[in-house]
Amino acid sequence: MKKRLITVDIIVAVLALICVGLTVALGLVSPTLFLISVAVLSVFTIVILLNIQRMRRLIARLLHGAGYEDSSTQHSLANLAVPVLILSGKNIVWYNDAFAAGVLTDREYYLQSVYKAIPGFDPEKIARPEGQPLEVEGRLFTAFGSGVARGDGLFVAYFINDTVLKTEAMEYRATRPAVLHIMVDTYDEVLKDLKDSEKAALTGEIDRVFENFIDGTTGFLLRLSSSRYLAVMEERHMAEVVAGKFAVLDRMREIGNENGVVTLSIGVGRGGATFAECEKMARAALDMALGRGGDQAAVRSADGGFEFYGGVSRSVEKRTKVKSRIIANALGDIIRQSDSVVIMGHRMSDLDAIGAAIGVLRICKIFDKPAAVAVDEKHTLAGSLIDRFRRSGLGEDFITPAEALEGLTRRTLVIIVDTHVPHLLESGEIYRAANNVVVIDHHRKMVGHIDNAVIFYHEPYASSTCELVAELLQYVGEREDRPTALESEAMLAGIMLDTRDFVINAGVRTFEAAAYLRRMGAQTQNVKRLFAGSLESYTSKARLVSEAVLYKGCAIVASDDVPADSGVIVPQAANDLLSIEGVQASFVAVDMGGFISVSARSLGEVNVQVIMEKLGGGGHLTMAGAQMKDVSLDKTKVYIMAAIDEYRKNQAEEE
Ligand SMILES: Nc1ncnc2c1ncn2[C@@H]1O[C@H](COP(=O)(O)O[C@H]2[C@@H](O)[C@H](n3cnc4c(N)ncnc43)O[C@@H]2COP(=O)(O)O)[C@@H](O)[C@H]1O
Ligand SMILES: [Mn+2]
């Protein structure tokens, strides 16, 4: 077909050249005849131009073959109510009346390029079983076709007008419900000690922000209590709220007084099949937002995934001693009802995990229950603490996970400390084999957390798990049931680790817990000794610190120059880097042989949790980490820098 087109083009060009040549020759022989022939030529050209569409149609008929004319195929396609188009290569050579009336309606398109006539037209996509969605003249079609997708063969395309179906489907999706559970985190704090008129002015400001938030939508917002709201909005508006990264969090944070700023926690359920399902998802999402420290939005989608927005401010301590007392009573009851207790922390346990486990062990001893701490002593960062207990004749308190598993019965209680996600446990097998599980943890809520615990004591506002356990100890047993000095020092070590010696996250309750442990005989100099390392590890740590480069207020180290058993020197180097002037956050990445481990720290101005989440890790605002497989150190450094870039960009936008 292409060849035929070229032949026609050549013949037309040759004839035109002959005409021009003859006219010129005539002009040389007779100027009068020349003028006549020019006039005839002009009239001829005008006639051709006036009939160009008819000629195109004629040529098109010639091109798609005389055999096709008047054929039964042609008649069946011509009369078909479905718009049909025939192409030769990229050129439109035929279409039926339904196509002219319903697809390209403005003029004729014979011998025109289909790509110009129908932008986006793709023969390969059209030939797929699901066809190609196309928009032509404001109408929506799905085009199906067959034939030679490219080249010079014939290609037949059918156009199904599904404008109504698609617009209604879009409208259906855009009007799906999204449910939002909203909590004003700091309501009581900011209103504390205010005069009635001041309270009215401040709550008026809060209401105005909420009104502006919902007014731009077709949804509604209901106040459930002074600090709790429920909103329902259409998916089209929810998508805008998400695209705007929940700007309402920032608007609200602009309100405040000397007591603090107003922060929100928002849980969103979207994509559920019913209102009830979305509401349930929203509740779970709010739980997650609060569990991560508040001042953020958590969005739960139908596939069970979470997305988080915000979370830039420091969390406000929101705990009550009443809750501690209730938990202590409930824990006492369940320990009493069990035959034995196994306590375990997270993998690569540290002083907070083992310190808290030792505290819980004391609670079990108060109730006279056989109990032990399951720990993998080959992979622990709390070796100095466990050794100290062994040297004091208390080695039997520590057993291997395999031994614990062997002794597990239906009535064994498993108490998990310092983590709340199954994949970080010292032993997933012990957890899975347990009938009764209790969780005590202070980490920000993570996706996929343990959901079958009889007691889930989760306090993201606590500095450490040891702080929580030290409080529980004060409410169990009789007056004389007290932790020993050795146990108190173990718990104080956990608090000092997670607060970096009371610098980070140390609230009133932290100091109260520390004071209690001091009263129980804990000596800080003994605790400090648990942190002491060898000269070799000190030198390695100093080397790591010296390799730091500064980038956008952050110190970054990427090194393979660490001893095989580098243990605590990596997090310690990250801690030390924060003492350098101008460093707001530190990131130390090392090759652990098989994977890259990153320790990230900040003093609170930078949320390292958000940055580490971009690398697949997590943690807290001031202390986070990530582990990466199949990636080089250099690449890790690039990823860290990119995550810092994005964080700084978001920070700048929020300011
Ligand atoms: N992949 C991850 N997902 C979620 N959360 C993660 C992930 N990887 C790490 N995290 C959390 O991030 C923080 C920080 O972890 P880190 O490894 O950098 O630091 C922990 C210990 O290695 C470190 N540590 C232990 N002993 C000492 C010591 N003697 N001196 C200094 N530092 C030490 O302290 C961190 C303790 O963290 P904790 O268990 O959370 O209390 C951490 O939360 C990870 O869970
Ligand atoms: Mn820990």
Automatic annotation (TrEMBL):
Keywords: Cell membrane, Hydrolase, Manganese, Membrane, Metal-binding, Transmembrane, Transmembrane helix
Principal subcellular localization: membrane
Transmembrane segments: 7-28, 34-52
Keyword Zinc-finger attached: no
Record carries keyword Manganese: yes
Residue sites binding Mn(2+) 2 per the record: D352, D418, H442, D498
Protein name stated in the entry: Cyclic-di-AMP phosphodiesterase
GO cellular component, one term: plasma membrane
Binding residues annotated for Mn(2+) 1, in chain numbering: H346, D350, D418
InterPro entries cross-referenced by the UniProt entry: DDH_dom, DHH_sf, DHHA1_dom, GdpP/PdeA, Oligoribo/pAp-PDE_c-di-AMP_PDE
Cofactor: Mn(2+)
General function of this protein: Has phosphodiesterase (PDE) activity against cyclic-di-AMP (c-di-AMP).
A UniProt-annotated Pfam family: GGDEF_GdpP
Residue ranges constituting the DDH domain according to the UniProt record: 341-495
